[in-house]
Amino acid sequence: MSSFPILYWPRSTKSDIEYQTARKVINTAIGEMPNVISGDLNVADVFAAHPDAVIYYPVFYGSTGWWGELLGGNAVVTNKLIISPECQLMVIEDTKHAGNHKNTATHQLFAAEIYPTSGFFKKMSSEIAVVSDMLATEAGTVLALFAGRDKNRLVNILESTGNSYLGCIGHY
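Given the sequence above, the corresponding structure tokens read:
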């Protein structure tokens, strides 16, 4: 049981069936109702104030870039809860506390800042990891989220192509 569950809900909660369902699913899973944050979410600030917090972050069908707020926040995705075909909750914890969970999943989520070179994309097509989401930055780089099995192999590929690795941000 977590000591400080937080449901981040970026849209209006009034008459939102998915919001109500999310609260029920969390309550069923951990035995308590979550605190709700509906404004801006700064993951690093939440974990600084509440290191034992567990953030339930909704990912809606068709949305992209949900993971960008996790970068640099010492956050890992430790699980996911399905709310509906249109929404799932990513369960996010501080890396220091997430080690308490035994997760047997074979795929992890990795984030990396890359410079889109042909060498990088040729090596990534060798099934070391699959690009799940990409965001372009104003600096001309690309933030990419990968699903893969081997963090070390992904880091080696990134470094061999001259790209900058930002770290593993989670797994499920």
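Residues 17-30 form the longest helix (14 residues). Try to locate this feature in the token string yourself.
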